[in-house]
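Input record, target 12 of the design panel.
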Protein backbone atom coordinates (compact mmCIF):
# COMPACT_ATOMS: atom_id res chain seq x y z
CA UNK A 1 0.00 0.00 0.00
CA UNK A 2 2.68 2.48 1.02
CA UNK A 3 4.36 2.34 -2.41
CA UNK A 4 1.09 3.14 -4.12
CA UNK A 5 0.40 6.31 -2.12
CA UNK A 6 1.38 9.68 -3.55
CA UNK A 7 2.04 10.76 0.02
CA UNK A 8 3.29 7.68 1.92
CA UNK A 9 3.33 9.62 5.19
CA UNK A 10 -0.47 9.33 5.28
CA UNK A 11 -0.06 5.70 6.28
CA UNK A 12 0.13 5.85 10.06
CA UNK A 13 0.26 2.85 12.35
CA UNK A 14 0.35 4.48 15.80
CA UNK A 15 -2.33 6.07 17.93
CA UNK A 16 -2.60 9.87 17.99
CA UNK A 17 -2.75 11.36 21.48
CA UNK A 18 -2.15 14.97 22.47
CA UNK A 19 -0.63 15.76 19.09
CA UNK A 20 1.85 12.84 19.28
CA UNK A 21 1.96 9.50 17.47
CA UNK A 22 1.87 6.89 20.21
CA UNK A 23 3.03 3.28 20.20
CA UNK A 24 2.68 1.04 23.24
CA UNK A 25 5.77 0.47 25.35
CA UNK A 26 5.74 -3.21 24.46
CA UNK A 27 5.19 -2.39 20.78
CA UNK A 28 2.01 -4.48 20.90
CA UNK A 29 0.31 -4.35 17.52
CA UNK A 30 -2.62 -5.83 15.63
CA UNK A 31 -2.90 -6.73 11.96
CA UNK A 32 -5.14 -4.96 9.48
CA UNK A 33 -6.22 -7.15 6.55
CA UNK A 34 -7.21 -6.44 2.97
CA UNK A 35 -10.45 -8.42 2.65
CA UNK A 36 -10.05 -8.70 -1.13
CA UNK A 37 -6.85 -10.71 -0.77
CA UNK A 38 -6.55 -11.67 2.89
CA UNK A 39 -3.10 -10.00 2.93
CA UNK A 40 -1.86 -8.05 5.93
CA UNK A 41 -1.86 -4.33 5.08
CA UNK A 42 -0.35 -2.93 8.28
CA UNK A 43 0.42 -3.56 11.94
CA UNK A 44 -1.22 -0.93 14.11
CA UNK A 45 -0.58 0.00 17.76
CA UNK A 46 -2.83 -2.01 20.05
CA UNK A 47 -3.57 0.56 22.72
CA UNK A 48 -5.71 0.05 25.82
CA UNK A 49 -7.17 1.63 28.91
CA UNK A 50 -4.02 3.47 29.92
CA UNK A 51 -3.70 5.24 26.59
CA UNK A 52 -7.44 5.95 26.58
CA UNK A 53 -7.02 7.71 29.93
CA UNK A 54 -4.09 9.70 28.57
CA UNK A 55 -6.16 10.71 25.56
CA UNK A 56 -9.09 11.78 27.76
CA UNK A 57 -6.73 13.81 29.98
CA UNK A 58 -5.27 15.48 26.89
CA UNK A 59 -8.73 16.19 25.51
CA UNK A 60 -9.86 17.65 28.83
CA UNK A 61 -6.81 19.92 29.04
CA UNK A 62 -7.24 20.99 25.41
CA UNK A 63 -10.95 21.67 25.95
CA UNK A 64 -10.23 24.47 28.40
CA UNK A 65 -8.51 26.41 25.60
CA UNK A 66 -10.38 25.13 22.55
CA UNK A 67 -13.75 26.23 23.93
CA UNK A 68 -12.38 29.80 24.04
CA UNK A 69 -11.19 29.79 20.42
CA UNK A 70 -13.46 32.11 18.41
CA UNK A 71 -15.94 30.38 16.12
CA UNK A 72 -14.41 31.97 13.05
CA UNK A 73 -11.04 30.46 13.84
CA UNK A 74 -12.52 27.02 14.54
CA UNK A 75 -14.30 27.35 11.22
CA UNK A 76 -11.07 28.21 9.36
CA UNK A 77 -9.26 25.21 10.80
CA UNK A 78 -12.09 22.90 9.79
CA UNK A 79 -12.11 24.43 6.32
CA UNK A 80 -8.35 23.81 6.01
CA UNK A 81 -8.88 20.20 7.09
CA UNK A 82 -11.59 19.81 4.44
CA UNK A 83 -9.26 21.19 1.76
CA UNK A 84 -6.49 18.79 2.81
CA UNK A 85 -8.86 15.80 2.76
CA UNK A 86 -10.02 16.65 -0.75
CA UNK A 87 -6.45 17.30 -1.92
CA UNK A 88 -5.58 13.78 -0.73
CA UNK A 89 -8.78 12.11 -1.93
CA UNK A 90 -7.01 9.52 -4.06
CA UNK A 91 -4.66 8.37 -1.29
CA UNK A 92 -7.46 8.25 1.27
CA UNK A 93 -9.55 6.20 -1.16
CA UNK A 94 -6.69 3.75 -1.69
CA UNK A 95 -6.16 3.35 2.05
CA UNK A 96 -9.88 2.71 2.46
CA UNK A 97 -10.15 0.09 -0.28
CA UNK A 98 -7.05 -1.69 1.07
CA UNK A 99 -8.46 -2.02 4.58
CA UNK A 100 -12.20 -2.19 3.91
CA UNK A 101 -12.53 -3.80 0.48
CA UNK A 102 -15.13 -1.53 -1.09
CA UNK A 103 -14.58 -0.80 -4.77
CA UNK A 104 -12.29 2.15 -5.38
CA UNK A 105 -14.99 4.30 -7.00
CA UNK A 106 -17.08 3.95 -3.84
CA UNK A 107 -14.06 4.81 -1.69
CA UNK A 108 -13.47 8.00 -3.67
CA UNK A 109 -17.16 8.79 -3.22
CA UNK A 110 -16.98 8.18 0.51
CA UNK A 111 -13.94 10.44 0.95
CA UNK A 112 -15.86 13.27 -0.76
CA UNK A 113 -18.99 12.47 1.24
CA UNK A 114 -17.00 12.35 4.48
CA UNK A 115 -15.27 15.62 3.63
CA UNK A 116 -18.63 17.27 2.98
CA UNK A 117 -19.39 16.99 6.71
CA UNK A 118 -16.17 18.84 7.54
CA UNK A 119 -17.04 21.57 5.04
CA UNK A 120 -20.61 21.81 6.32
CA UNK A 121 -19.65 22.05 9.99
CA UNK A 122 -16.90 24.55 9.17
CA UNK A 123 -19.76 26.71 7.93
CA UNK A 124 -22.14 25.87 10.77
CA UNK A 125 -19.50 26.67 13.42
CA UNK A 126 -20.26 30.33 12.66
CA UNK A 127 -23.99 29.89 13.17
CA UNK A 128 -24.28 28.74 16.77
CA UNK A 129 -26.89 31.25 17.87
CA UNK A 130 -28.40 31.96 21.26
CA UNK A 131 -31.77 33.46 22.12
CA UNK A 132 -33.25 36.31 24.13
CA UNK A 133 -36.57 35.31 25.66
CA UNK A 134 -39.48 37.36 26.99
CA UNK A 135 -39.41 37.84 30.77
CA UNK A 136 -41.98 37.38 33.49
CA UNK A 137 -41.11 40.72 35.14
CA UNK A 138 -39.90 44.08 33.81
CA UNK A 139 -36.68 44.14 35.85
CA UNK A 140 -35.12 41.08 34.32
CA UNK A 141 -34.07 39.62 30.97
CA UNK A 142 -33.75 35.94 30.09
CA UNK A 143 -30.97 34.77 27.80
CA UNK A 144 -30.02 31.43 26.28
CA UNK A 145 -26.49 30.70 25.15
CA UNK A 146 -25.17 27.49 23.62
CA UNK A 147 -21.91 26.01 24.82
CA UNK A 148 -19.79 23.03 23.92
CA UNK A 149 -20.70 19.86 25.80
CA UNK A 150 -17.08 19.04 26.68
CA UNK A 151 -14.90 16.03 25.92
CA UNK A 152 -16.59 13.62 23.51
CA UNK A 153 -15.90 9.89 23.25
CA UNK A 154 -16.58 8.51 19.76
CA UNK A 155 -16.69 4.87 18.67
CA UNK A 156 -17.04 4.14 14.96
CA UNK A 157 -17.60 1.09 12.71
CA UNK A 158 -15.73 -0.34 9.72
CA UNK A 159 -18.38 0.02 6.99
CA UNK A 160 -17.72 3.74 6.38
CA UNK A 161 -14.17 4.15 7.76
CA UNK A 162 -14.00 7.84 6.83
CA UNK A 163 -17.49 9.35 6.85
CA UNK A 164 -18.63 7.90 10.19
CA UNK A 165 -15.66 9.71 11.71
CA UNK A 166 -16.06 13.10 10.04
CA UNK A 167 -19.78 13.11 10.89
CA UNK A 168 -18.83 13.04 14.55
CA UNK A 169 -15.50 14.82 14.74
CA UNK A 170 -16.44 17.81 12.57
CA UNK A 171 -19.57 18.86 14.53
CA UNK A 172 -17.79 18.21 17.83
CA UNK A 173 -14.86 20.47 16.90
CA UNK A 174 -17.19 23.06 15.35
CA UNK A 175 -19.13 23.25 18.62
CA UNK A 176 -15.95 23.70 20.66
CA UNK A 177 -15.73 20.15 22.02
CA UNK A 178 -12.59 18.02 21.97
CA UNK A 179 -12.74 14.35 21.07
CA UNK A 180 -11.26 10.91 21.69
CA UNK A 181 -12.00 8.52 18.83
CA UNK A 182 -11.82 4.73 18.89
CA UNK A 183 -12.13 3.56 15.28
CA UNK A 184 -13.07 -0.03 14.38
CA UNK A 185 -10.02 -2.27 14.56
CA UNK A 186 -10.76 -3.57 11.05
CA UNK A 187 -10.28 -0.07 9.58
CA UNK A 188 -8.02 2.14 11.70
CA UNK A 189 -5.87 3.42 8.82
CA UNK A 190 -8.51 5.76 7.39
CA UNK A 191 -9.01 7.25 10.86
CA UNK A 192 -5.29 7.77 11.37
CA UNK A 193 -4.86 9.39 7.94
CA UNK A 194 -7.69 11.79 8.84
CA UNK A 195 -5.92 12.60 12.11
CA UNK A 196 -2.66 13.28 10.26
CA UNK A 197 -4.47 15.72 7.95
CA UNK A 198 -6.20 17.39 10.91
CA UNK A 199 -2.78 17.80 12.50
CA UNK A 200 -1.46 19.39 9.29
CA UNK A 201 -4.50 21.68 9.23
CA UNK A 202 -3.30 23.05 12.56
CA UNK A 203 -5.71 21.89 15.25
CA UNK A 204 -4.06 22.30 18.67
CA UNK A 205 -2.68 19.20 20.40
CA UNK A 206 -5.29 17.21 22.31
CA UNK A 207 -8.29 18.53 20.37
CA UNK A 208 -8.59 15.38 18.23
CA UNK A 209 -7.19 12.11 19.60
CA UNK A 210 -7.32 8.61 18.14
CA UNK A 211 -6.95 5.47 20.27
CA UNK A 212 -6.47 2.38 18.11
CA UNK A 213 -6.93 -1.02 19.69
CA UNK A 214 -8.59 -4.41 19.65
CA UNK A 215 -9.81 -4.43 23.24
CA UNK A 216 -12.86 -2.38 22.37
CA UNK A 217 -14.67 -3.50 25.53
CA UNK A 218 -12.06 -1.99 27.86
CA UNK A 219 -11.55 1.14 25.76
CA UNK A 220 -15.33 1.57 25.58
CA UNK A 221 -15.68 1.00 29.32
CA UNK A 222 -13.12 3.74 30.03
CA UNK A 223 -14.74 6.20 27.61
CA UNK A 224 -18.18 5.59 29.10
CA UNK A 225 -17.13 5.70 32.76
CA UNK A 226 -14.50 8.46 32.86
CA UNK A 227 -16.18 11.51 34.42
CA UNK A 228 -14.26 13.91 32.13
CA UNK A 229 -16.09 12.52 29.10
CA UNK A 230 -19.42 14.34 28.79
CA UNK A 231 -20.82 12.69 25.69
CA UNK A 232 -20.61 9.38 23.87
CA UNK A 233 -21.35 9.19 20.17
CA UNK A 234 -21.49 5.77 18.57
CA UNK A 235 -22.26 4.15 15.24
CA UNK A 236 -22.55 0.36 15.26
CA UNK A 237 -24.79 -2.46 16.31
CA UNK A 238 -27.83 -2.05 18.55
CA UNK A 239 -26.41 -4.65 20.96
CA UNK A 240 -23.24 -2.62 21.58
CA UNK A 241 -25.16 0.68 21.56
CA UNK A 242 -27.32 -0.54 24.43
CA UNK A 243 -24.24 -1.56 26.42
CA UNK A 244 -22.68 1.87 25.90
CA UNK A 245 -25.91 3.64 26.92
CA UNK A 246 -26.14 1.54 30.04
CA UNK A 247 -22.50 2.25 30.93
CA UNK A 248 -22.96 5.98 30.20
CA UNK A 249 -25.93 6.18 32.55
CA UNK A 250 -23.72 5.97 35.64
CA UNK A 251 -22.23 9.40 34.94
CA UNK A 252 -25.31 10.69 33.04
CA UNK A 253 -23.45 11.32 29.80
CA UNK A 254 -25.27 12.57 26.76
CA UNK A 255 -25.44 9.90 24.07
CA UNK A 256 -25.94 9.88 20.32
CA UNK A 257 -26.53 6.47 18.84
CA UNK A 258 -26.63 5.40 15.19
CA UNK A 259 -27.57 1.74 15.47
CA UNK A 260 -28.92 -1.07 13.34
CA UNK A 261 -31.48 -0.69 10.60
CA UNK A 262 -33.89 -2.96 8.76
CA UNK A 263 -34.87 -0.70 5.89
CA UNK A 264 -37.91 -1.62 3.81
CA UNK A 265 -38.45 -0.46 0.22
CA UNK A 266 -42.19 -0.34 -0.53
CA UNK A 267 -42.92 -0.61 -4.24
CA UNK A 268 -46.54 0.06 -5.14
CA UNK A 269 -48.25 -0.95 -8.38
CA UNK A 270 -48.46 2.67 -9.58
CA UNK A 271 -44.67 3.16 -9.26
CA UNK A 272 -42.35 3.91 -12.14
CA UNK A 273 -40.99 0.36 -12.16
CA UNK A 274 -37.67 1.13 -13.85
CA UNK A 275 -36.92 3.83 -11.29
CA UNK A 276 -37.97 1.49 -8.48
CA UNK A 277 -35.66 -1.25 -9.78
CA UNK A 278 -32.71 1.15 -9.98
CA UNK A 279 -33.48 2.68 -6.58
CA UNK A 280 -33.77 -0.70 -4.88
CA UNK A 281 -30.56 -1.84 -6.59
CA UNK A 282 -28.56 1.12 -5.31
CA UNK A 283 -30.12 0.92 -1.85
CA UNK A 284 -29.37 -2.78 -1.55
CA UNK A 285 -25.95 -3.32 -3.05
CA UNK A 286 -23.90 -0.22 -2.17
CA UNK A 287 -20.84 -1.25 -0.14
CA UNK A 288 -21.76 -4.90 -0.88
CA UNK A 289 -24.88 -4.46 1.24
CA UNK A 290 -22.97 -3.34 4.32
CA UNK A 291 -24.69 -0.08 5.19
CA UNK A 292 -27.21 0.56 7.94
CA UNK A 293 -29.66 2.15 5.50
CA UNK A 294 -29.34 -0.69 2.96
CA UNK A 295 -32.64 -2.04 1.66
CA UNK A 296 -33.02 -5.03 3.93
CA UNK A 297 -36.51 -5.96 2.76
CA UNK A 298 -37.96 -5.19 -0.65
CA UNK A 299 -41.77 -5.22 -0.42
CA UNK A 300 -43.54 -5.36 -3.78
CA UNK A 301 -47.28 -5.19 -4.51
CA UNK A 302 -48.61 -8.53 -5.80
CA UNK A 303 -49.75 -7.28 -9.23
CA UNK A 304 -46.21 -6.22 -10.21
CA UNK A 305 -44.26 -8.82 -8.23
CA UNK A 306 -43.28 -11.07 -11.16
CA UNK A 307 -42.28 -8.17 -13.40
CA UNK A 308 -40.21 -6.56 -10.63
CA UNK A 309 -38.38 -9.84 -9.93
CA UNK A 310 -37.62 -10.25 -13.64
CA UNK A 311 -36.21 -6.76 -14.14
CA UNK A 312 -34.42 -6.62 -10.80
CA UNK A 313 -32.73 -10.00 -11.25
CA UNK A 314 -31.57 -8.97 -14.74
CA UNK A 315 -29.89 -5.87 -13.30
CA UNK A 316 -28.31 -7.81 -10.42
CA UNK A 317 -26.78 -10.23 -12.94
CA UNK A 318 -24.66 -7.32 -14.29
CA UNK A 319 -22.59 -6.92 -11.11
CA UNK A 320 -18.91 -7.84 -11.36
CA UNK A 321 -17.66 -9.24 -8.08
CA UNK A 322 -13.95 -8.77 -7.44
CA UNK A 323 -11.00 -7.03 -5.82
CA UNK A 324 -12.00 -3.50 -4.87
CA UNK A 325 -8.85 -2.16 -6.49
CA UNK A 326 -9.75 -3.44 -9.96
CA UNK A 327 -11.59 -0.82 -11.99
CA UNK A 328 -13.72 -3.60 -13.47
CA UNK A 329 -15.20 -4.66 -10.13
CA UNK A 330 -18.57 -3.21 -9.22
CA UNK A 331 -18.84 -5.07 -5.94
CA UNK A 332 -16.14 -6.00 -3.44
CA UNK A 333 -15.80 -8.51 -0.62
CA UNK A 334 -17.43 -8.49 2.80
CA UNK A 335 -15.37 -7.27 5.72
CA UNK A 336 -14.59 -10.64 7.37
CA UNK A 337 -15.16 -14.36 6.91
CA UNK A 338 -17.46 -14.15 9.92
CA UNK A 339 -19.59 -11.63 8.05
CA UNK A 340 -19.83 -14.06 5.11
CA UNK A 341 -20.85 -16.86 7.48
CA UNK A 342 -23.61 -14.63 8.88
CA UNK A 343 -25.00 -14.01 5.40
CA UNK A 344 -24.80 -17.72 4.51
CA UNK A 345 -26.78 -18.64 7.61
CA UNK A 346 -29.56 -16.13 6.86
CA UNK A 347 -29.84 -17.33 3.26
CA UNK A 348 -29.89 -20.99 4.32
CA UNK A 349 -32.59 -20.28 6.87
CA UNK A 350 -34.81 -18.59 4.26
CA UNK A 351 -34.24 -21.31 1.65
CA UNK A 352 -34.98 -24.09 4.15
CA UNK A 353 -38.30 -22.39 4.88
CA UNK A 354 -39.32 -22.11 1.22
CA UNK A 355 -37.61 -19.03 -0.26
CA UNK A 356 -36.32 -19.41 -3.82
CA UNK A 357 -33.01 -18.15 -5.14
CA UNK A 358 -33.43 -16.08 -8.35
CA UNK A 359 -29.71 -15.38 -8.70
CA UNK A 360 -26.59 -15.85 -6.56
CA UNK A 361 -26.98 -17.49 -3.18
CA UNK A 362 -23.42 -18.74 -2.76
CA UNK A 363 -20.02 -17.75 -1.44
CA UNK A 364 -18.20 -16.07 -4.34
CA UNK A 365 -15.71 -17.96 -6.50
CA UNK A 366 -13.16 -15.17 -5.78
CA UNK A 367 -12.53 -16.41 -2.25
CA UNK A 368 -13.82 -16.77 1.28
CA UNK A 369 -14.54 -13.08 1.79
CA UNK A 370 -16.91 -12.76 -1.15
CA UNK A 371 -20.63 -13.45 -1.41
CA UNK A 372 -22.51 -13.38 -4.71
CA UNK A 373 -25.08 -10.63 -5.31
CA UNK A 374 -28.27 -12.49 -4.51
CA UNK A 375 -32.02 -12.13 -5.07
CA UNK A 376 -34.44 -14.26 -3.05
CA UNK A 377 -38.19 -14.51 -3.69
CA UNK A 378 -41.24 -15.90 -1.91
CA UNK A 379 -40.10 -14.68 1.49
CA UNK A 380 -42.39 -14.73 4.50
CA UNK A 381 -42.46 -13.38 8.04
CA UNK A 382 -41.29 -16.67 9.60
CA UNK A 383 -37.82 -16.28 8.07
CA UNK A 384 -34.96 -14.60 9.93
CA UNK A 385 -34.45 -12.31 6.93
CA UNK A 386 -37.78 -10.65 7.76
CA UNK A 387 -36.44 -9.45 11.10
CA UNK A 388 -32.63 -9.38 10.99
CA UNK A 389 -30.28 -6.99 9.25
CA UNK A 390 -28.45 -9.05 6.61
CA UNK A 391 -25.44 -6.73 6.09
CA UNK A 392 -24.49 -8.37 2.83
CA UNK A 393 -25.50 -8.43 -0.84
CA UNK A 394 -28.75 -10.34 -0.42
CA UNK A 395 -32.05 -8.84 -1.58
CA UNK A 396 -35.10 -10.59 -0.12
CA UNK A 397 -38.23 -9.69 -2.09
CA UNK A 398 -41.51 -9.96 -0.19
CA UNK A 399 -45.04 -9.65 -1.60
CA UNK A 400 -47.90 -7.52 -0.24
CA UNK A 401 -51.53 -6.93 -1.19
CA UNK A 402 -52.82 -3.63 0.20
CA UNK A 403 -51.22 -0.36 1.28
CA UNK A 404 -52.25 -1.11 4.86
CA UNK A 405 -50.53 -4.48 4.74
CA UNK A 406 -47.38 -2.90 3.31
CA UNK A 407 -47.17 -0.36 6.13
CA UNK A 408 -47.77 -3.04 8.76
CA UNK A 409 -45.01 -5.21 7.28
CA UNK A 410 -42.66 -2.23 7.04
CA UNK A 411 -43.19 -1.28 10.68
CA UNK A 412 -42.99 -4.84 12.01
CA UNK A 413 -39.45 -4.43 13.35
CA UNK A 414 -37.79 -2.91 16.39
CA UNK A 415 -35.61 -0.84 14.05
CA UNK A 416 -36.56 2.52 12.55
CA UNK A 417 -33.70 4.07 10.59
CA UNK A 418 -34.56 4.48 6.88
CA UNK A 419 -37.51 3.42 4.73
CA UNK A 420 -38.21 4.01 1.05
CA UNK A 421 -41.32 3.98 -1.11
CA UNK A 422 -42.01 4.10 -4.82
CA UNK A 423 -45.42 5.46 -5.85
CA UNK A 424 -46.84 8.33 -7.88
CA UNK A 425 -49.94 8.77 -5.75
CA UNK A 426 -49.60 12.00 -3.72
CA UNK A 427 -52.20 10.97 -1.18
CA UNK A 428 -50.37 7.72 -0.58
CA UNK A 429 -47.04 9.50 -0.20
CA UNK A 430 -48.48 11.43 2.75
CA UNK A 431 -50.42 8.55 4.27
CA UNK A 432 -47.54 6.09 4.08
CA UNK A 433 -44.85 8.70 4.79
CA UNK A 434 -46.53 9.66 8.05
CA UNK A 435 -47.32 6.08 9.05
CA UNK A 436 -43.78 4.73 8.60
CA UNK A 437 -42.02 4.53 11.97
CA UNK A 438 -38.64 5.62 10.64
CA UNK A 439 -36.30 8.57 11.10
CA UNK A 440 -35.80 8.96 7.34
CA UNK A 441 -38.13 8.24 4.43
CA UNK A 442 -37.03 8.27 0.78
CA UNK A 443 -39.87 8.90 -1.68
CA UNK A 444 -39.05 7.78 -5.21
CA UNK A 445 -35.41 8.12 -4.16
CA UNK A 446 -33.01 5.92 -2.23
CA UNK A 447 -29.77 7.96 -2.31
CA UNK A 448 -31.01 10.06 0.59
CA UNK A 449 -27.93 10.87 2.65
CA UNK A 450 -25.89 14.06 2.55
CA UNK A 451 -24.24 16.45 4.99
CA UNK A 452 -27.25 18.78 4.73
CA UNK A 453 -29.87 16.41 6.12
CA UNK A 454 -30.49 14.99 9.61
CA UNK A 455 -29.38 11.35 9.48
CA UNK A 456 -30.72 9.19 12.29
CA UNK A 457 -33.27 6.73 13.47
CA UNK A 458 -36.12 6.11 15.89
CA UNK A 459 -37.06 3.05 17.96
CA UNK A 460 -34.03 0.81 18.53
CA UNK A 461 -32.14 2.38 15.63
CA UNK A 462 -30.92 5.07 17.95
CA UNK A 463 -31.17 8.65 19.03
CA UNK A 464 -29.73 11.96 17.89
CA UNK A 465 -29.07 13.15 14.36
CA UNK A 466 -25.91 13.58 12.31
CA UNK A 467 -25.47 16.24 9.63
CA UNK A 468 -27.58 19.37 9.03
CA UNK A 469 -28.18 22.12 11.58
CA UNK A 470 -29.61 19.49 13.93
CA UNK A 471 -26.32 17.58 13.94
CA UNK A 472 -24.61 20.41 15.78
CA UNK A 473 -27.23 20.54 18.56
CA UNK A 474 -26.09 17.13 19.81
CA UNK A 475 -22.73 18.68 20.77
CA UNK A 476 -24.15 21.76 22.48
CA UNK A 477 -25.63 22.43 25.90
CA UNK A 478 -28.25 25.09 26.43
CA UNK A 479 -27.47 27.52 29.21
CA UNK A 480 -30.13 29.90 30.53
CA UNK A 481 -28.90 33.13 32.09
CA UNK A 482 -31.22 35.36 34.04
CA UNK A 483 -30.19 39.02 34.30
CA UNK A 484 -31.95 40.88 37.08
CA UNK A 485 -31.86 44.36 38.58
CA UNK A 486 -32.47 46.14 35.29
P1 LIG B 1 -20.21 -4.13 13.74
O1 LIG B 1 -21.08 -5.33 13.77
O2 LIG B 1 -20.54 -3.13 12.72
O3 LIG B 1 -18.74 -4.42 13.87
P2 LIG B 1 -20.14 -3.32 16.47
O4 LIG B 1 -21.22 -2.61 17.21
O5 LIG B 1 -19.74 -4.67 16.94
O6 LIG B 1 -20.64 -3.32 15.01
O7 LIG B 1 -18.83 -2.42 16.39
C1 LIG B 1 -18.85 -1.05 16.16
C2 LIG B 1 -17.73 -0.43 16.97
O8 LIG B 1 -17.94 -0.70 18.34
C3 LIG B 1 -16.34 -0.97 16.65
O9 LIG B 1 -15.42 0.10 16.74
C4 LIG B 1 -16.11 -1.98 17.75
O10 LIG B 1 -14.75 -2.18 18.01
C5 LIG B 1 -16.79 -1.29 18.92
N1 LIG B 1 -17.24 -2.16 20.01
C6 LIG B 1 -17.67 -3.44 19.94
N2 LIG B 1 -18.02 -3.91 21.16
C7 LIG B 1 -17.82 -2.88 22.03
C8 LIG B 1 -18.01 -2.71 23.47
N3 LIG B 1 -18.48 -3.68 24.23
N4 LIG B 1 -17.68 -1.51 23.99
C9 LIG B 1 -17.22 -0.52 23.22
N5 LIG B 1 -17.03 -0.61 21.89
C10 LIG B 1 -17.33 -1.78 21.31
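The sequence produced for target 12 reads:
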Amino acid sequence: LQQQLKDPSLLKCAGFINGQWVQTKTEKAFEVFNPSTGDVVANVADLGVKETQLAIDAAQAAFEKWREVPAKQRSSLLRRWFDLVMANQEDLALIMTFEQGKVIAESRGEVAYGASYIEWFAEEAKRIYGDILPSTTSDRRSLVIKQAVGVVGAITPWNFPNAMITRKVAPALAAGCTIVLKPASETPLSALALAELADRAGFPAGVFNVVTGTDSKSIGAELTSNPDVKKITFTGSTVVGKILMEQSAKTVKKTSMELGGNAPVLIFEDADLDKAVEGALVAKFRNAGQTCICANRILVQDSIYEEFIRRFTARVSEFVLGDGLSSESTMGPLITKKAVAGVVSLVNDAVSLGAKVCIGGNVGSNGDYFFEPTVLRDLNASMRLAKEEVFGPVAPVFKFGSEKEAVAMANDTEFGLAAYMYTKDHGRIWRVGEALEYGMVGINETAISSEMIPFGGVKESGQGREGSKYGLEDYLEIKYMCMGDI
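The CA atoms of residues 359 and 396 lie 11 Å apart.
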